[in-house]
Amino acid sequence: MNRLLVMVPREGVDRLRAAGSHGSATFRVSDAENVGYLCAVSVKEGLTLPVKMRPRTHFLNVGEARRGGFWYRATTDLHAYGMAAGHRQSALTVAYFAEQVRSGFKNPGRSDYIALTYAPDVEADYPGAGIAEFAAWLVTADGVEPLDVACEPQVVGNAQLAPQWPVDPLAAATVTVVGTGSIGGATVHALADYGVGRLVLVDPDRLLWHNLVRHVSGPAQVGKMKVFALRDDLEKLRPDTHIEPHALDVIRDADKVRPLLARSDLVVCTADGVAPRRVVSHLARRAGLEAVLACVLEDGGIGEILRLRPWPDRGCLVCQRQALTDAGAIDPEPALDAGYGTGTRHRPMTAVGSDLHLVGQLAAKAAVATLLECAGHPDQRLPGDHGLLALRPKPGWPPPFDLARAGELRWLAARPPVSGCPTCEEP
């Protein structure tokens, strides 16, 4: 079995750095996982202060509390030798360990104990050597064995990606997602993973049992509105993303959706059906907002990403579809109204959940690339505005849907507005 992993939450790190030379330590341990964390520590005033492991529901918060541990300030040499001993899977002598701690060493006698050591000068003494300032040990009468240790860093979440990833412009962005079903749920998760700071979710439906085969939310959320289920999931997974749920129908509640778009930087539509997509296309154009529409076509055979930009030379959804039919291609819109379900009035579910999630993730990438391109990141320019992804391609489909192999991705240019379009022409 792997060595015991000792975890030190941020609060524990700060307290040990500010404390004196030694003290007692209590660890809460899960034997099943062979992991524990520092849950209480005495400081220089002699007070024993608790250390919290967040979130409150963390599995270690119900582990067994083991008192009798200790912490020490130590020399940098101890951590250097300890790292080498760990690689060799060997132990240090008790005498050497006692010499290397500043003061207060407790001889284990017959009672083994866990110890933490803090060496604040490791970087100055061993620059660039990768020696950690905190180390964990199992102190026994026969020797002192290095344990694994993990300290919670000062910065967690998407901020860790800076400066390799443009964290700040995405953290400041607001994206509205209309439709939070199988594709939309995956889109929402991916946008949060990219670091979008605020997500406004719009969907009137509940999560039901038949949705679970394809939705990102699990059985514990059945019965909730989908927007609230996603909010509750992401509060645990991505607490640095603010989720604003609205159980609204984009068609019936268009008057309530307009102000949401007015304070958004981009809108993504993954809603089922022709009407919601056309409404989002129209509302986004009127708001001067870029939109990304995502769906699957031909019973889940093709994934489609359509970016609509409110520019004079780019048409709305209806214009894009008209250009396809004028070129002799299929008009995919009517098929989107048939719907999937569980009863005899609906078509059977033919799209696989992972394929839908792939389309949702691609929609999130298109949305984020659009935001970053507008923020001055040329490396995020997309190859086109109309993306087609082969999921289960079949021969005989007319261009541009004539993809031949699974995973093939094709990007096409956007079409200009159709003359007389009530959406694209200025009111």
State the gist of this model:
The protein has helices at 10-18, 76-88, 94-100, 122-125, 167-171, 182-194, 226-237, 254-262, 274-286, 317-326, 353-374; strands spanning 5-8, 22-30, 35-42, 48-50, 64-73, 113-118, 134-140, 143-151, 174-178, 198-202, 242-246, 266-269, 291-297, 302-308, 386-390, 409-412. It is an alpha/beta fold and 427 residues long.
Q: Could you walk me through the main structural features you see in this protein, from its secondary elements to its overall organization?
A:
The protein has 427 residues and is an alpha/beta fold. The chain folds into 2 domains: 5-151, Cytidine Deaminase, domain 2 (3-Layer(aba) Sandwich), CATH 3.40.140; 158-338 and 346-412, 3-Layer(aba) Sandwich (Rossmann fold), CATH 3.40.50. 27% of the residues lie in helices and 23% in strands. It has 11 helices and 16 strands. β2 (22-30) and β3 form a beta hairpin. The chain is elongated and about 90 Å long. This is Molybdopterin or thiamine biosynthesis adenylyltransferase. It comes from Micromonospora viridifaciens.
Summarize model confidence as the mean pLDDT.
91
Cα(first) to Cα(last) distance is 70 Å
CA gyration radius, whole angstroms: 28 Å
SSE string: EHEEEEHHEHEEHEHEHEHEHEEHHEE
The fourth-level CATH homologous superfamily of the largest domain is: NAD(P)-binding Rossmann-like Domain
- Structural category is alpha/beta
CATH domain topology of the largest domain: Rossmann fold
How much beta, percentage-wise?
15-25%
What is the β-strand count? 16
Question: Treating each run of at least 4 consecutive H or I residues as one helix, how many helices?
Answer: 11
